[in-house]
Design brief:
alpha/beta, Rossmann fold, Beta-Lactamase, 5 domains, 5-stranded parallel β-sheet, elongated, disordered C terminus
Length: about 675
Amino acid sequence: MNHSQSGPWRVIYLENKQQDRELVAGTLAAEGVDCEFIFAGTKNEFDVALTKPNIDLILSDCSLPSCSGAEALEAAKKVRPEVPFIFVSGTIGDDRAVEGLRSGATDYVLKENLDRLVPVVRRALQDTERRFSQRKIQQQLHATQERLDHLLAESPAVIYSIHLSDHHPALAWISSYIEHLLGFNAKEACAPDWWRNQTDPQDRPSLTGSPMQLLAQSQISRDLRIRHKNGEYRWVHDEQRVVCDGRGEPVEIVGSWVDFTAHKGLEDLLRQSQKMEAIGQLAGGVAHDFNNLLAIIRGNAELLLMKPPQHPGETENGLKQIVGAADRAANLTRQLLIFGRKQAMQFSPFNINEVVLNLSKMLQRIIVEDIHLLCECTPGKIFVHGDVGMVEQVLVNLVVNARDAMPRGGKLGLTTESVSLIATKEQAHPDARDGEFVRLSVSDSGTGISPGDLAHIFEPFFTTKAPGKGTGLGLAIVYGIVKQHQGWIELSSKVGTGTRFNVFLPTIPTPVTTSGVVAADANLQGGTERILMVEDDFAVRMLTQRLLETYGYHVWTAESAQEALEIWREHACEVSLLLTDVLMPGTLTGRELAEQLQKEKPQLKVIFLSGYSPDLAGGNTNFIDRLKARFLQKPCASRTILETVRSCLDNPHETSSDKKPNSEKKKP
């Protein structure tokens, strides 16, 4: 239809008489009804005219040679049912007029009474214009509704409505995004009690009485855990507002759910990180003090062992046990420091079988009684070059993971095996390569891992455990440690059968080792040089002084850097070596003291001691090379102290901090 007030109305006029055509057209024009006529004299011409665009009105005679008015009306209603149809005839009886109106004609006008023509046409056109406007509004509303539906479907929030009534309020409508968020379709979500049943039991009390609370406050904001169709819980932020009618009466609640599960996970990780940082600070302080105690325990035992003729065999054996226990305690302390980020990883050769067998005793205590731990190590010694504490953490994490996969008990296997890989192309893992390796396996008879989860199992923060049961970091840490050791992990699992982790680490030839227990040894050389030792712990200071003086050195001791400066002012020309802790109370650190003294006496030798690794004790390792110093980490063997002192005094040109005494140069 045209329907434009700026242009003429397009009118089809079915009339075979030219005189009548001109009469009707002239009547309308005389009254200001601007029309563009499409005249038809036969049924065929009429059918063609009906196909023309923008038709606003149809006029038709009631009786033509080629067709009747009824046939014309029927054809018009089929092709242009929305266009008004008016009979204009010279002879139309009442019966035919009524029948025509019943069949869909808009009105009829007699040719002998054309005064009615203009009002009838104008009324028909006005009705048409009104219907067109209404239809246009409906189309616009429909388009708006479609756009709104699209926006709601694509919105990252679930929108819902609750109708308030005297009975139990329930979801009346919810957007289709619910299926993306929680896996349920809109029909399922609108079922009675669905919301309450899917809400975590701990959060359900916040739902009780919420409509009444909302009516009192007009708005509610809260965080809820709602169960996904797959059984997992999602954190959603629920916000509700009340809608009132024209009288101010509440009739509806509109609300939204926004998924913030990932954000909640980051918040939890941040809190966990803050807790671990606090624990790390505590661990660092405790471990540093504990290292001093271990140094005293071990040092005194070793001093006694340096004079074996004075002790019976049983006493000597007991002293050796004390030294061995101090070594193991020092290793535990080092793990505490690593945990607190106060200790760098330390690589050295070790026997993996010995580590596994020793650790298995502790692992038995962290698994439940209905889990049977079977530990089998291949015969002989298998050496790898790595960080013992980190490899132990790999084992602990894998064993804990296996334990959690067997809630009803089962079998847990821990094995080692030497393997020689030759045909790399036959290996399934991309990091596999030729060479000699140890295969460290942890297997369980638990629930297994689904194929869909296998691809993500080593991703940080990915976990198949229930909320609160795991951080998703354990296996990611395992993966990182193994990669740092130039190894890889192969994983096989089947749902309902169990899981097996195979950790491959490169092996090394059996290293030349030196016993950590110091006994009388003619090869240990002392000297007569004068040493300035600075140590704030009294017992460690006295023990180290006693050790050095036993081997002929002259030692001045100081509790702080300030006290050391006073000794230095009197004996600077006599001091050959500064042996100092790095971190001490007071205004000067051991590093700052060494820098100051070397400015005054460039040939002064320096050895640093600390319970921390050098990078954490002094900020970085550059100061060691810059001062041409050595670094010893407490607690260390008496032999190591003596050899380092002698080596430092005898080798003036060595400047690298990584040069170590013979007892610590363990090459594969």
